[in-house]
Design brief:
The complex is a heterodimer. Chain A is α/β, with parallel strands linked by helices. Chain A has 9 helices and 12 strands. In chain A, about 35% of the residues lie in helices and about 25% in strands. The two termini of chain A are about 35 Å apart. By secondary structure, chain B is mainly α. Helices cover about 75% and strands about 0% of the residues of chain B. Chain B has a two-stranded antiparallel sheet with strand order 1-2. In chain B, helix 9 runs antiparallel to helix 10 and helix 15 runs parallel beside helix 17. The chains are: A alpha/beta, B mainly alpha. At the A-B interface, helix 2, strand 8, helix 4 and helix 6 of A face helix 1, helix 9, helix 11, helix 12 and helix 13 of B.
Chain lengths: ~260, ~425
Amino acid sequence: MKEMVHVTGAPVLALRGVSKRFGAVQALTDVHLEVHAGEVVALVGDNGAGKSTLVKTIAGVHPIDEGVIEWEGREVRINRPQDAQGLGVATVYQDLALCDNLDVVGNLFLGRELKKFGTLDEVGMEKRAKELLDTLSIRIPSVRIPIAALSGGQRQVVAIARALVGDPKIVILDEPTAALGVEQTAQVLDLVERLRERGLGVILISHNMADVKAVADTVAVLRLGRNNGSFPVAGTTHEEIISAITGATENAVTRRQARIAEEAK
Amino acid sequence: MSTSQTTEAPAPAIDPRLMIREEGFAGYLGEFKRKMKTGELGSVPVVLGLVLIAAIFQGLTGDFLNADNLTNITLWIAGPGLIAVGIVFVLLLGEIDLSLGSIAGVSAAIAGVLSARSGVNEWLSILIALAAGVAMGALHGFFFAKIGVPAFVVTLAGLLAWSGLQQFVLGDKGTANVLNNGVIADLDHYFIGEGDIAATWIFALAGVGLFLAGQLLDRRRRTAAGLPARPVSEIALRTGVIGLIAIAAAYTLNQSQGLPLPLVIFLGIVVITDFVLRRTSYGRQIFAVGGGIEAARRAGINVAWVRISVFMISAGMAALGGLFIMSQQGSADKALGSGNVLMNSIAAAVIGGTSLFGGRGKTWSALLGILVIQSIITGLDLVHVNQSIQYMITGAVLLAAVVLDSVSRRTQKSSGRG
């Protein structure tokens, strides 16, 4: 059974009335989003709904034009990726961005290597890498093999583990299961649950309703750059979420379902 | 919920598909065989090549393994070998630097003209020459990293421009002689302790001792941290092989004139650069940029600075190499660094096992590769083969090395590595 959501008072991250324009395109309009510690928020919406843009504003890739970002109750400015990292936001992009030629330890600590007397502390890093992977129950052949030798699912969990090395409070996962098989997807979903157990806030972008229903506590729907509802997963049906995504009860999906129901009669 | 799955498997179960290395010596052999099969050839082809070359020329001439000839080879490899160390840095980024021959030439010209014609202190002229080289590298790096001009084009422009500067600096006379018994003259001609055989033995044994101490220390730290460590048998084997090579080399050098200064400097620079690449975060950044620019950038690595600094290092190495070549030939002239100097250095880096595709390699490959190249050149000289044939043979060896690199990359891909 899923644990109860231990939502503690103020959200870790809150977006209030956020807007973002790219030239003539209004990518985000007056968007609200709250993420609490120990909460998995699924961010869903059709292609072009503004999910990626929203995530990139949090990650500091695109500074917001209007609105307020609050971090643990106080207003902050996130203008650069470093600002987001400094606050404790870790992002795992869809293209993972791992160095194929470096081994798992090298990738986990890339950019924040442990050092001893000014040189790399390989022993310390390998030890911490093993501990981190063990606490997440991540299974890979060896922490000393190059990333190139890992499978897609293994790369995904390494990329997520890498996001955790800096002890973040919010982890953003951009379609973590998009390219994965059945078992690998289950492993990644397990990992998402372990992140929640550790008290991290997780923003999960996904097109897969089964994944969303499986791990998320809250579903935030974006449509055409605006909020289109936020539902607790428990007690919300598939159809309700889909109609929020597509924006109407009358659309291609409902028409198809009606037709199938008609034919079944 | 899928959480039940993890509670059932408390200890990380061993995936049957994984290769688990056996303990001890059997494991070492098994690992070695697996690496050979999957295309991680490492230094094996080049070492085999060296043995083959030595055997062929020894058979043809009977003089190749003669102590004087081998000592001469150590004197000749320092200059192009240092340029090859610079090439290794650039290749690790997956780039190429075509200007290094010209930079070696300019550096030699500056040092020669300043010391021999203008009477500037030799040490100061050396420093100015090296600084000029580094500055030229910084310029290449700037155009490559900040403006976005492909490195191939920037350094091709450098190849022409710096070769022009070299002729300009040398002026109408065209040659600047090395001062007799000066610092530059010593670079490629001095023997440590005036040929004292003790120096060679101390150097060889200290090197092997440091290697053994480093391996044992690493093993102790890893065992203390509960991590898998190299078995003692493997450390013993490695130390034994290196010790044999060191003793054989020391014995041979002592049959001739003792321990050459250029060999000590070249080996020292290879060891230091290897340490920088493998044991510092700067070295890790170079590998990261060579392995995935986007990943490196997102990890907060200053990609532009890594690129610029690598071009500065390669140019600095070339400038130093130019001084050794100048010392070797006794003068700086317009031809220094031209012709096949650059090609031999690139060939050396690649033959030694540094990948042309970036992200894989070590500076030791510069040493191994230049030994192969210089052995071929020296051997062909001994059997009086025309230079035209030498070029063709060196070209074929380079092609063979690149083919080996590409094929081993493909094998690694198909076995899920690289």
